[in-house]
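Hi P.,

Sorry for the delay on this. The queue was packed all week, but I finally got your sequence through. Input first:
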Amino acid sequence: MKSNKMNNRTRFTDKHLLITGAARGIGFEIARQFLLEEARVTIFDVHGENLESAVRQLTSLSSDVTGEVVDITDRQQVFDAVKRTEERSKVDILINNAGICHVTPFLRIEEDEWNRVLDINLTGMFHVSQAVCRIMAERREGVVINMASKNALDGEEGHAHYNASKAGVVLLTKTMALELANTGIRVNAVCPGYIRTPMSRELDSPEFVEKFVDRYIPLNRPGNVEDIAPAFLFLASEESRFMTGQEIVLDGGQLAGQKPF
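Then the structure:
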């Protein structure tokens, strides 16, 4: 008897993923896991050297990997790059992953730093989403997944600009979902908590991580990139076909409440 069970290893055969900021960290792992499920992948990243290295590593899994240096804060550059990407293969899934984080007390944040964080984390996401969704809407199908953060739902000291940008991502996600539902496009967000990535390792000492986990994370460990990527695959798949305008929180229980002293 032939089984009707879905083969999870090939959920994305013949699907094309466009992902931003995937030269390292969570984005790289997301791209890797989509490739393992037979997707073709295009990566936009502003860091050419990191992008070249990522594409080289990912090509060992599949030849269906393309990297393009794109500054998502440059609207015209984004629209031109999306047009080239669509000419290679229609984009079925967009993952807006690119983002930065600075730790600066609220009273010390300068305008340039504030603008830089908002320009990349929120306005850049808007540029890419609009460029891709205008095309998806014509086809009346598509999936968009936005990288938000636990900080979108619960502030953190020293992160006013980051918190504000990620809160904006959540409401952008919900508004996109409302407006695009009748075009067949689903839009959701993922909100990771504390995850060990190259960026977090640059910012945080091992002592800080130990104290943070002990104080805030009920599961008693920081997250890893492998903990986060599967949520993006779920949201991109038919398994979540009745889900839009939502955020999935992956934080080890941090937002569940305060740990006992």
